[in-house]
Amino acid sequence: MARAEKKRAPRTATEAVERPSGTSDRRPLYFAALLVLADAALVALIIAFVPYTKIDWDAYMSQVDAFLEGERDYTKIEGDTGPLVYPAGFLYVYSAIKFLTGGQVFPAQILFGVLYIVNLSLVLLLYVKTEVLPWWALGFLCLSKRVHSIFVLRLFNDCFAMTLLHAAMVLIIYHKWYLGLIVFSGAVSVKMNVLLFAPSLLLLMVKAMSIKGVFFVLFGAAVVQVLLGMPFLLSHPVEYISRAFNLGRVFIHFWSVNFKFVPEKLFVSKELAIALLILHLTTLVVFAHYKWLKHEGGLFGFLHSRFKHAKSILKLFSSQPRPSILSKEHIVTVMFVGNFIGIVCARSLHYQFYSWYFYSLPFLLWKTHFPTPLRIILFLGVELCWNIYPSTAYSSLLLLFLHISVLLGIWFSPTEYPYNDKRT
Q1: Biased-composition ranges for Basic residues (predicted)?
Q2: Ordered alpha helix ranges (H), 245-312
């Protein structure tokens, strides 16, 4: 009975005021549909009247040309911005784009405009289903000048990676784990930043599935990577793996939006990279123990409960999780917060990287107990930092302060109950 009462409690003060007891508020759904239509019109106007900015498009097309001409050695696939550093899915996606657009920018912008609307629709679905925000706050998802630019004026591959990631999240909140992980793996094959979601996703899978189920889901995701990379793995495997999955890349200090206040010598040092990695992993463990697994007795209590009867591999694979279904809010919270921790601890964030977490920002702000005016100020402050070009020591320091403020707000907020009593 206590569990049911907790599930019925309003998530925000706004929800408690706006939603009468026993009624279904359809305003978020209607407002989301209106936002999609309005933003589609805005995207069309941007494409028609705002000049396109050439950054990576020519490099993408050069890399695709080399691939289509038969080159399979990743060390020989390059563009005017440098060597190819993305997994094979990137080449397939942009080969399809070149086929559809003839390599021309304007039709590609139209295609990316459609992609923007698809991505926005997926994100709005996540928000409407989790009911964390009041209906009017969904409008913040359409207010980023920088994100509109990333999609339809820059044509970055981040756009495809994040759209696939959000599609995977939609599948996962409906408990379509196998298909969700295949789409997630497809997102990773376009750009590896999606791996920032992987620790959270693994934790959710272990909570929701049997160990055998987790193994087969991960195996399916791995098969996707192998199949996509097969042409390169069969001919030049070392070159492909070392270039496409290079986790040790050092980005240029000038282009960094965060940590611009750090001297360049320290910025490119291994010491800073290792320190941030340790901070990243430690923060994930702390959140897992005290927040995401709070109702299961913490990280170590949860692991003990899952593995205490596993006396052999056979028993480990036959063990079953508790007969409960993870709530949509919990799934989205863990994934968005886990990714945001990676953003806070990232050594370098380039301008297109804003798309990695912008769509989670309103959700994260409303997971805090900050007053709404402060939430809006934090949102606008982050947007401001991402629209200062070039970034400065002051703007990057402000961005770090805002990120940490949001993360602390989440830390000190109550933890949602993670389970549904029945499938919804």
Answers
A1: 1-10
A2: 264-267, 270-287, 298-307
At 123-135, the pLDDT tens digits run: 999 999 999 999 9
| Whole-angstrom distance, CA of residue 208 vs CA of residue 299 | 15
How far is the C-alpha of 159 from the C-alpha of 157, rounded, in Å?
Answer: 5
CB atoms within 10 A of CB 421: 11
Write the CA distances from 12 to 28, 180, 376, integer angstroms. 15, 29, 15
Q: Match 């679905």 to its residue by tokens.
A: 125
Alpha-carbon distances, residue 194 vs 22, 158, 198, 284 (angstroms) = 39, 9, 7, 16
Distances (CA, A) of 212 to 165, 208, 240, 283, 307: 24, 12, 30, 28, 13
Q: In terms of pLDDT, which residue wins out, 55 or 250?
A: 55
| Confidence grade of residue 315 (pLDDT, cut at 50, 70, 90) | low
Residue linked to tokens 């993408």 = 60
CA distances from 223 to 181, 189, 230 (A): 11, 12, 10
Token pair for residue 270?
């291994």
- Using CA atoms, how far apart are residues 67 and 240, in angstroms rounded to an integer? 13
Element (H, E) at 166: helix 158-173
Distance from the Cα of residue 99 to its chain's centroid: 28
Which one-letter amino acid corresponds to residue 211? I
Rounded distance between C-alpha atoms, residue 91 and residue 98, angstroms: 10
- Look at the alpha carbons of 370, 285, 323, 184 in this order and tell me if their dihedral is positive or negative: positive
Amino acid at 208: A
**Cβ–Cβ under 8 Å, residues 334 and 200:** yes
Per-residue pLDDT for 17 more than 70?
no
- pLDDT value at 324 more than 90: no
Confidence at residue 136, expressed as pLDDT on a 0 to 100 scale: 97
Question: How would you class 220 by CB atoms within 10 Å of its CB: exposed for 0-12, middle for 13-18, buried for 19 or more?
Answer: middle
CA Rg value for the chain: 22
Supply the mean pLDDT for the chain: 91
Tokens matching residue 263 = 């001297």
| Model pTM score | 0.92
The C-alpha atoms of residue 201 and residue 232 are separated, in whole angstroms, by: 28
